[in-house]
Design a protein that fits this description.
By secondary structure, the protein is an alpha/beta fold. It has helices at residues 14-28, 47-50, 70-76, 107-117, 134-142, 153-167, 170-192, 196-203, 215-219, 224-240, 246-254, 282-299, 320-330, 351-354, 356-361, 370-375, 385-397, 404-417, 424-450, 477-487; strands spanning 3-7, 33-35, 38-41, 56-61, 66-68, 124-127, 145-150, 310-314, 338-341, 456-461, 464-468, 471-475, 490-499, 514-522. The strands form three sheets. Strands 8-7-6-9-10-14-13 form a seven-stranded mixed β-sheet, with helices on both faces. The chain has a five-stranded antiparallel β-sheet with strand order 2-3-1-4-5.
Length: 529
Amino acid sequence: MTTALLWNDYKYMPYEKRLATLEVARLLGVEPQPTPDGLVVDRHVRPSIAKRLTYFSAAVSSAGKMTPTDQHLFESTSRGRNGSTSGRQSTRYSAHGLHEYRGKFNPQIVRAVVNILGLRGGSLLLDPFCGSGTVLLESAHLGHNAIGFDLHPLAVEIANSKITAYRTSRRTMRRAINAVRRETEAATAAQESGALGEWLEHNYPEVSVDRLPNADYLMEWFPSLALRQLAFLLAMIERAVPSNLHSVFRMLVSDIVRDTSWQEPADLRIRRRAEPADNYPVISLFKEKAEKAVGLILAMPEASSDDQRQLACYVDSRQKEDAIAQLNRAFPRRRVDAVITSPPYATALPYVDMHRLSLCLLGLISNAGIRSAERALVGNREIGTRERDGLDRRIQENAAELPKLCNDLCRRMLAEAQRPGNGFRRRNTPALLYKYLEEMRETFRTLGAVLKPGAPAALVVGPNRCSLGGIDFVIDTPDLLRELAEQTGLATDECIELNTYQRYDIHSQNSIRREVLLVVRRARGSKRS
């Protein structure tokens, strides 16, 4: 008996077919053979297994019985709602499209890695750099427990809001979007008639720009009418939306902040638009965003009423004791069955800076605290001359006793960075890399402490490059992290090439079109450190 596994009707990247072949081999215990339409295996595939597959539309038995995959059904819910077509893979189904967050990996990768690792239902997953919660939401779809750590306040709120949105009953979600429709339609009508101010004064007397957190700072970055509309939306959410969904709709407001401010939307750092406008259609953009996002959630199957739990926490993964304490609070007497993460790179994206207006508007941070919040993140680029000089000395002495591969690269880069002709940021690169490697080693120590003996940690990461003194350097992050993991007692299990997996919105200038699925494991029989 054979089973045909059919591709979807969109174009695949090579890494996706590589992962598809690997997950089939791991789930079924047989090597699949390629066909023009997909893969075929010489065995019967149970429907429960077929539904778990990631990169296929369906499994068809030799008797002609077809079993659609859950992933195909999930992706189908978003077609026609978020601009996707049959020729393009959907990554914004369910609550994944609640808030854009640069640098996240595709949710399909999470499902595929879960299958490749052979995780059973109800497993406990950890993402030590959870960002906007892709691993957490996919864990909810798959019936796993999950916990995520991050030091970005907005990321933690986005991640938890996605889980809340997916797990909220469809009836409650419909009540919420209906309330939003009523209030925003009335506000839009008042605005079109030129009476928005009077309407707000009568219906929302609590709306005042002055009452917003960080009001003085926000006034420097928004037209007054746009900021007043944002204040209205936040007040409307507090008053009209069910309380358990406040965070969900606040995230929908956050997602339009860049487009309705004087910040250049395409710029990662906060820089002003070349042509700022006197106002932006805040309310109409929010309505459009809310309708689309809620529509995608309502199109999904109702979340099961199981005992699994997913949550994001404001925790520093480098601080082992803090991580263990939070894990014990959330999941008493449990160890982690697997880690799945997309770790930051050295000289990572300026995550806090790119979201500073949302952070200030929502009161998650003060404008005075932006820089310190950025500096707290692993891989950040914020460094002063004194700190850099200290790190340069650490490189020369290898004060942190990093593995030879890691320190040798930092020393070669330092020698070129100190030559004339390197600007401030290039001059900082060796120090920032050394600091990043120290911090990632601390993270691996945390992982070794929370993982079950023999449990895997899967990292999707790739190399990048930089130029110093006219010399090009390849920073082979997968190899560097493998060395650090092994130094902390984690054993390399496998290193799977994902050629041409390119993240189009990050590291585009210095990226190499290659990423790796690096899997390390805690040794069996090892004691918790």
